[in-house]
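REQUEST FORM: STRUCTURE PREDICTION
Request ID: SP-0412
Submitted by: Lab K.M.
Chain count: 1
Length (residues): 335
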Amino acid sequence: MGSQDRVLVLGATGGVGGEIARQLRAAGWPVRALRRGPAAAAVDDGIEWQVGDAMQTEDVMAAARGCSVIVHAVNPPGYRRWSELVLPMLDNTIAAARAHGATVVLPGTVYNYGPDVFPLIAEDAPQRPLTRKGAIRVEMERRLEAAAASGALRVLILRCGDFFGPGVRNSWFSQGMLRPGRPVTQVQLPGPGVGHQYAYLPDVARCVLRLLARRAELPAFTRLHFGGHWDDDGSQLARAVQRVVVAHGGATPRLAPFGWWQVWLAAPFVTTLRELLEMRYLWRQPVQLDNRRLLALLGDEPHTPLDEAAATTLQALGCLPAAPPRAARSLRPLP
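STATUS: Completed
RESULT:
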C-alpha cells in the first residue's frame, strides 16, 4: 500500500459500503466517507467522515481529493427513485475519479442478466435484463467501461449473488426469508428446489481488499464474479439457519414457501412489490456466477463456512435466542 492509497467510500452508512469501509480501515487504509447531516462529525470509528451528498457533484469532488480509490456502494435512500437518482450519482463518481485519477470499485449484481445466459454466467455474457433496475445496472457498467476506455480512470466491478451478513438489512435474507428483531420460527424459501447464489458480505469485503492490493496488474476495466455460497437446491441457507437456531437453544424453525401470491395481490398498490415480482425470474431457475477468472487471479476466494456466516448474520439481526450456544455437535445436519 502506497502513501497515496486513501479511499473514499460512498454508501458507507449502508451494509455493503459499511463493511468494505470497516475492513479497509482495519487493514490500514486511510478511509474517508460521505454522510448526509451533521451527525457525521460525531462518529468515532477511525473513518474520516465528511458531511455531503452523493447527488451533489461538488461534494463528491471535494471528498475524493487525495483519494486513489472510490468505492461506489451508494443507493437512493430507501432504494426509491432509482430511475432519477442512480445514474446521476454514478456520473458524479466518474467525474471525481477522472479528476483525481482514481480507481472506481462497484459491487455488482445479477440483475444485469436475463434468463438467456442462465444457469452459469460468465463475465462476458450478454447483458439483456428483464427489469428496470437491471437496465439501469447495465447502463451503469456501460458508463464505467466508457470512462475507463478514455484512460482517465480505472474500474473494478465485483459481481455477487444475493448479499447476507451483519449490517445487510435490504436483502432477500433479512426481508424475505425471515424477520429481523424476532426469534426465527419460520424461514421462507423464495425458490425451493432451485439453485441460488448468496454472497456473505464480510467475504466480499475481504475479496475487494485483495483485489485492490493487485489493482495495478488488472486491466483498466475489470469485471470479476464472486462465487460465494452456492445453494444447490434453494434450501441450504435456510437449513443452516435451522442448525444455528437449534445450537442457540431455540426450536427448529419451519421451512415454508415464500408467499409470492401475496406479493402478486398487493403489487398493483405498492411499487416495491411490483419490482419484487419483476425479480421473480431469478428464483425460477438456477442462477450461478462463474468465478473461475477470480480463482485464477487470486488462487482462492475468501469463504466463511455457511453455519458461521448464518450465525453472525442472525446475531446482528437480533434473531437469536438469549440462551448460549449448545455444543458443536448441535450443528450436525438436520434430518
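NOTES: The first strand starts at residue 7 and ends at 10.
Reviewed by: T.R.
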